[in-house]
Amino acid sequence: MNAPSSVVSAKDLSLVFQTSDGPVHALSNVDLEVGKGDFVSFIGPSGCGKTTFLRVIADLEKHTSGDITVNAMTPENARKDRSYGYVFQAAALYPWRTIEKNIALPLEIMGYGREEQQRRIEETLKLVNLTGFGKKFPWQLSGGMQQRASIARALAFDADLLLMDEPFGALDEIVRDHLNEQLLKLWAATNKTICFVTHSIPEAVYLSTKIVVMSPRPGRVTDIIHSTLPKERPLDIRETPEFLEIAHRVREGLKAGHSYDE
């Protein structure tokens, strides 16, 4: 049985996709604990199972063997209990709905009254620094603002767990840096548990309390790095020896776990 502080617990977790060319081992023997309030980044090359693992947590994919619990429940029950919010690679906002109506969508589905919807919309817009933009349509906002609106939608029903699948990957470096700072402030303000997929070593090191390094063929965890950086992290912390040392370990873990054989 999980300790109360364990939000995600995976034991010997594997997932095999059956294809016309034979089985594809997407995840192999993954053991991982995500504690309450952790910021865990998953990093590895394309095809290493980062997004697949996130989708297993969200009950969007079914694991083949092993065990996984989310808030001490099966992923299916956690989904039904609305235990998590999910932020995709693209903002995935409905273009015919205003920003506040996009944020309201899960609240409408869950049956919240209009007053409570409005309270939550205003609260989450403030959290992501979009106060005053609720009446705008997605096409009237920049890419970075759209992604912040997507985060607001995931936060609106106040789930403890936030699953983020490379949400800033398509943005330019300056916007990405800004959103990384904003996300750390958001995490500090809400004490959410965050599972975050990225291809960027600096992003993983800057954001995380724990970095999970994964390798392809089959997708497995090759290293789990616990960050020694302080919780308060200005952007220039990325130039410190401590930051560079963690980044070096991540890079070496990626090299060690990657086969270059054809």
UniProtKB/TrEMBL annotation:
Xref: InterPro entries: AAA+_ATPase, ABC_transporter-like_ATP-bd, ABC_transporter-like_CS, ABC_transporter_ATP-bind, P-loop_NTPase
Keywords attached to this entry: ATP-binding, Nucleotide-binding, Transport
Keyword ATP-binding: yes
One Pfam family matching this protein: ABC_tran
Domain of life: Bacteria
Span of domain ABC transporter: 8-241
GO molecular-function terms, A-Z: ATP binding; ATP hydrolysis activity
Family note: Belongs to the ABC transporter superfamily.
Protein name per UniProt: ABC transporter ATP-binding protein
The organism of origin for this protein: Ciceribacter ferrooxidans
